[in-house]
Amino acid sequence: xxxxxxxxxxxxxDDMPELGxxxxxxxxxxxARQSGFAGVELGNKFPRxxxxxxxxxxxxxxALASGWYGSRLLERDVDAEMAAAEPHIAxxxxxxxxxxxxxxVSRAVHGExxxxxxxRPVLSDADWAVLAPRMTEMGRRLAARGLRLAYHHHxxxxxxxxAEIDRLMASTGPEVGxxxxxxxxxxxxxxxxxxxRRHAARIAHVHCKDVRAPVMAxxxxxxxxxxxxxxxxxxxxxxxxxxxxxxVFAMLAEAGYDGWLVVEAEQDPAKAHPLTYAxxxxxxxxxxxxxxxxxxxxxxxx
Length: 302
Known about the structure:
This protein is α/β, with parallel strands linked by helices. It has helices at 25-34, 50-59, 78-94, 125-144, 162-171, 182-187, 192-198, 213-222, 226-232, 245-255, 274-293, and strands spanning 2-6, 39-41, 63-66, 68-71, 99-104, 148-152, 176-181, 203-208, 210-211, 235-236, 259-263.
């Protein structure tokens, strides 16, 4: 079944908490449902205990699609990583999630406001030899808990480019799934459709993020930090940028993808009115998902 979710970054930002700081969680959830979404991902205002979170989401008729986990497998072994991740794993499983959004954040610069993206970390062969087997084992252990590791390639991290995604998929076992993020891959100079076709069997989760191509070209020319690029408006929701979502969804349908399509766009809510953009993202995703997936698409009642 294909369902639509939204990330609360539309309303309030995790990496820049001052963006949307005044917006209560209830507003995020009410407007997500008002826009027609069936689910949400975790954000910094969400309670992290299932007993507290379940009744809140239930009140708004929303499911939890997943939530971000930043790993440090380059710095610690799998036992230590599993111990660090346990509260997150327990929350996702208790909430009925089937995928864990998983990104390696060792050495990452995406949260550093003064570090340009050109200075982001690049793995050596020795680093790959450490990371890949640990990632496979992490995927194995998450699977034992009922969760698919959905690896999130991300600007400013060690897995950013299409070539790095290819190497990660080639050097890890099938226990490591792929979170295909259309915006991050486009920003990194990649092709979401081509990469998706190559790794179709591994796609475990999808982030539907659009890119404003003129802004992307400008921030690359100026070599801005990631968060500065966000503030410049490099990302937006589907239907407001240059990503060909009709082609992306057609590829996913052909691949037999089953799961959430998550609308996500880090924007300044003072410049990009959250409800307006949530509705635009949902409308675009709903129309294209219905066309591509047919009866497998389950729209939420608005």
